[in-house]
Amino acid sequence: MKQFFKFVLATIVGVIISGIIIGVVGAVLVIGLIASAGSDKTVDVSPNSILYMSLKNQITERTPNNPLAGLDFLGLNEDKSIGLNDILADIKKAKTDDNIKGIYLDESYMTAGQATTEEIRNALIDFKKSGKFIVAYAEVYTQGFYYLASVADKVYINPKGIFEFHGFSSQTTFLKGALDKLGIEAQIIKVGTFKSAVEPLFLTKMSDANKLQVTSYLGSLYNHFLTGISKSRGLNRDSLFSYADNMRIQFPEDAYKLKLVDGLKYKDEILNDLKRRTGTDLKDDLKSVDLRDYAKSKSDDSDDKEDDSSSKNRIAIVYASGDITGGDGDDNSIGSETISKALRKARLDDKVKAVVLRVNSPGGSSLASDVIWREVKLIHEKKPIIVSMGDYAASGGYYISCAADSIIAQPNTITGSIGIFAVLPNMQKLFNDKLGVTFDGVKTGKYADLGDISRPLSPEEHLILQNSVNRGYDEFTKAVADGRGKTQAYINSIGQGRVWTGEQALKIGLVDRLGNINDAITSAAKKAKIKTYNIVSYPEQKSFFNKVGSGLSAEVQTRMVKNELGENYRVYQQIKGITQMMRTPQARLPYDLVIK
Question: Which of 221, 498, 556, 576 could form a disulfide bond with 194, CB atoms 3.0-4.6 angstroms apart?
């Protein structure tokens, strides 16, 4: 009995302590919200300042609406991501800001996609037209960051740093062996010789067709990478290829001797150099402003401001970023309901004279893609709509793009992948042999239990599903043919699930030109025959308060898993993605497409 009361007392104490903790947590949230109320106040930029650009955090299409991003609480401090929209706007603003004397690029591990990097790189090239300086410094230069930094006036590396320059590689994780051990058979129904998204489920290595396409687009991306560095550094492209192919750069001094960097310096030397460039006494602190803060600084350029009420002429930018799913989606996915609603709103608003659809997606549900495609087609019939492609606009991402007036992509955008597939698991061996579980039942028709994962598909059932996928592919290629003014036979010849870079897609007619999102906006204005306009963005971003109920806990959980798994998070995503692919026919890229 004494022991019983001890446990009861411990339980009561635990409840009390838990209540205190919950109260403290709530107080922290309230304090954070109150503090964040003043976070949107204007930031003053001191004369002779530099714009400090550190791009180590995730770069999204739009800066998340998270007032608690800076708080060290529940992992929210990890969410310091910044939107490409703010980065490009900041660089453009700094170009004409008399208080900004130059830009300091300070980053080692930039994780941005290649097309996103291209957008920022081009913005920096444009910034240099002002005559202001750009200085880049890193302790570790990844190939992605060096491609960006190579446009700087001066590129420096730590004397003991690391300089990666060894070429591109792409590797796929195959799961067939693991599925076999578990007694799970992936039953594949697909159209497209090159549709490789399902290969990890039933093969142990890349098919010849997949290896052919990966070799092709990887070569295109690498050629663009080398050409860009060649132009910015004034080096021979073939020499750069040789340096990487023969691993000529193993230490910082190698990069210096081969003129890929301008010097080996420690951080204090870089800071002193920046002080001299800005006329700052070496004893004083360097005046600088971070990208996030600079977005809140005063600007005299009213054209860059979004205004959804004052102008009669508007261009709507509809952001479609992430996997394509049915329903509402979230900040990291394209929900067919949410994006369709945003497109419909832009179509019905008479003040919106043109639409730019910003697509950054590897695809997803073919049904959800078709729902969005329909709204794009309706806009095309009423007013101009231009697609701007980001890192990816492939498979379902291309489907939702093809009905636009024109498509603009970056040379290193991943696009195409016109194809459809479906996956249905047969878990009979897992249930019967591994777990000792069996099933029995009755049905009113031959196909009443079609899709039952406890048994394999019959030949007739497989044919039914194949016919459904075939029809989806026919509708996909017809939509592309109609949108691009090509024959369906031609689209089929360049389709078959094959992946292309933006540069390759231009040559075969899948895109109209190479450029960035600003080019798309300019094109939309020209087609709408308007010279002055305001920009409005859709869909409306959810506020922190909207996320508290459901989405916030999911975000915190995701960040915790990312922190725990590190680079292995990609494998976790791949395994998790299998369940998503088994729900509906998919129009999507290989979900583990990684280029190093």
Answer: 498
User: Interior CA angle at 53 toward 116 and 307, to 5°?
Assistant: 70
Structure tokens at 401: 């793009």
Pick from 398, 386, 393: nearest CA to 517: 386
- Examine the pLDDT at 158 and tell me if it is beyond 50: yes
Could you give the CA distance from residue 357 to residue 379 in angstroms, rounded to a whole number? 11
Tell me if residue 532 falls in helix, strand or coil. Answer: coil
- 340 classed as catalytic: no
For tokens 């044919």, name the residue. 463
195 is catalytic: yes
Catalytic one of 195, 265, 353, 547: 195
Confidence at residue 293, expressed as pLDDT on a 0 to 100 scale: 87
Bridge partners of 141, per DSSP, are 163
Nearest-10 crossing angle of helices 208-233, 237-245 = 120
* Sequence-ordered alpha helix ranges (H) in 199-290: 199-202, 208-233, 237-245, 252-257, 267-277
Model-level pTM greater than 0.90? no
Catalytic residue among 150, 395, 401, 417: 395
The burial of 516, by beta-carbon neighbours within 10 Å (0-12 exposed, 13-18 middle, 19 or more buried), is given as buried
- The answer to whether 158 and 174 are in contact (CB under 8 A) is no
Contact present, 342 and 400 (Cβ < 8 Å): no
* Angle CA 406–410–415, to nearest 5: 75
Tens digits of residue pLDDT in 189-238: 998 888 888 899 999 999 999 999 999 999 999 999 999 999 999 999 99
What's the average model confidence in pLDDT over 243-249? 96
The torsion region of residue 56 among left (phi > 0), alpha (psi -120 to 50) and beta comes to alpha
